[in-house]
Amino acid sequence: AKDLAKAVENPIGGKKLSEILATAKKVTIVTENQFRQAQVTVVLPWLLAEIKKAGGTATIVIGCGKVPALSPEEIAEKFGHDVVDTGVAIYCNDVSNAENYVFKGTTNSGIAVWVHRKVAEADAVITVSTTQATLWGYGGSGMIIPAVAGNDTIEYNHVLSLAPDCKPGNNDCRMQVDKYEAARLANVSFGIHMIVNNKFETTYINAGDFVEAHKEAVKVYDQTYRFDASEFKENK
Questions:
Q1: What single string gives the DSSP state of each residue in 99-166?
Q2: Per 3-state DSSP, what percentage of the chain is helix, strand, and coil (rounded to 5)?
Q3: pLDDT tens for each residue of 28-86
Q4: Which of 151, 137, 161, 158 is nearest to 67 (CA)?
Q5: How far apart are CA 54 and CA 118, in angstroms?
């Protein structure tokens, strides 16, 4: 929590969290689902307390994308009872309810961005995510697409995975850029990015402008985990 408090008041780009909360009455926190490991059991109680202290009302939307919604038991396991027992409103992204989405604009790839109503209606949107390597670039970038986006938005964005530049380790691929653009269109106010090792320990945390802070987290991730596969060519 000490590292978190330091990160949010020393942002990488953008405003400090305290500055954002000073004017936000409705705050939506977007989290990952059960398949990513950012330690929300530590982050969420602290965030909820800060939002309440600033006079705001918090809502949580779990970024399920097109994965089925979590059960109440799974939500309690993911967030901990310190969060669930506060009574904070918690929603799961559910693409089967098309009426739950609001149109926010179109990316440069021509993809219409529809986002969960509770994200669209917020004065401030805060994301909490895990930065890690994926098949298309790096996780942690997808806190709007696919996390809290409508069905068509997710499907069309994922078509970009067929582009030749979409491969592990390329953070500039079209699919990744599209996700960044969607975060801008959805007015994501603040991103908290974490790197978690294979013992489920947080080894790095930053915060600030969603895109700038994610790119910085990618640099830190690469320093530890990136390698050139060609070095194993003769030694499989």
A1: GGEEEEEE-TT--EEEEEHHHHT-SEEEEEEE-EE-SSSEETS-TTTTTTB-HHHHHHHHHGGGSTT-
A2: 40, 25, 40
A3: 999 999 999 999 999 999 999 999 999 999 999 999 999 999 999 999 999 999 999 99
A4: 151
A5: 20
